[in-house]
Amino acid sequence: MDSETDMESNESGPNSTPNRPQRGMFYQLQIVIIVAFILATLFTAWTPASLLPGNLSERFAQVLAFQATETAALPTPTARPRPLIGLVVGHWDDQTKDPGAVCADGLTEIEVNQAIATRVKQVLVNEGFDVDLLREFDEKLQGYRALTLVSIHADSCEFVNDEATGFKVAAALSNQYPERASRLTACIIDRYGQATGLAYHSSTVTNDMSSYHAFDEIENNTNAVIIETGFLNLDRQILTKGQDLIAKGISDGILCYIRNEDLSSNDAP
Predict the structure, then answer these.
(1) What is the pTM of this model?
(2) Is the domain of 98 the same as that of 183?
(3) What is the mean pLDDT of the chain?
(4) Which one is predicted more confidently, 94 or 171?
(5) Of 11, 114, 191, 212, which has the fewest Cβ atoms less than 10 A away?
(6) Residue 9 pLDDT > 50, yes or no?
(7) Which residues, at least 6 apart from 77, have a Cβ–Cβ distance to it below 8 Å?
(8) Domain check: are 43 and 147 in the same one?
(9) How many structural domains is the chain composed of?
(10) Are residues 103 and 231 in the same domain?
(11) What is the pLDDT of residues 192-215, one digit of tens each?
(12) 103 located within any domain
């Protein structure tokens, strides 16, 4: 009795290992369900769509189509606007209908101005700029903002004297940035003279040119000049037959200013 009692007391003592509880059927069923779910997922992922049940295949196709639509709907980057240059076509205005200078044979200043401005625009567009062709009293001139503005005119068709030949350029008398105005004027004088062979006719620059109406209308940061491309009398040949050279001179002058190209010290007006 004593030995049996001792054995029982040793089995139930503090150093004895308790028996682990037996897990029931519910736990084993959980394991089976989890394993089945994992196998089903793997089977679905690696099974061709053609072998899937109809509803499941259609759902996968819908998801893929939605993703493709979402990708296609993403906004594409918008190209940055190109730098802007403004060209005023002298006397081009439907309200005043002022053709500018008129020659005896019917040639008008506005015809010459339009032909030249159109060519200048094409050259500058090819150089990577956007160009506005503006009317003489265009509403856009109010607060107009651009890299630069050039108003294109031609001089009188009347014979004055043998010295009435050549071109002239003027910036605003009260320009807010006189060094920039001087630079633009110098660039156009230099490049225009080189392209056309015409002389700079500084002695006939008038107050009407320096006080040109558009100078007071445009935005303060828009540097602007007005150019009289030549006299419709003695310079008629180049103004009508050599308009590509005229356009080259003006566009080269604008590019000289924008690109800060070199000028010699005696190029300044």
Answers:
(1) 0.70
(2) yes
(3) 81
(4) 171
(5) 11
(6) no
(7) none
(8) no
(9) 2
(10) yes
(11) 999 999 999 888 888 889 999 999
(12) yes
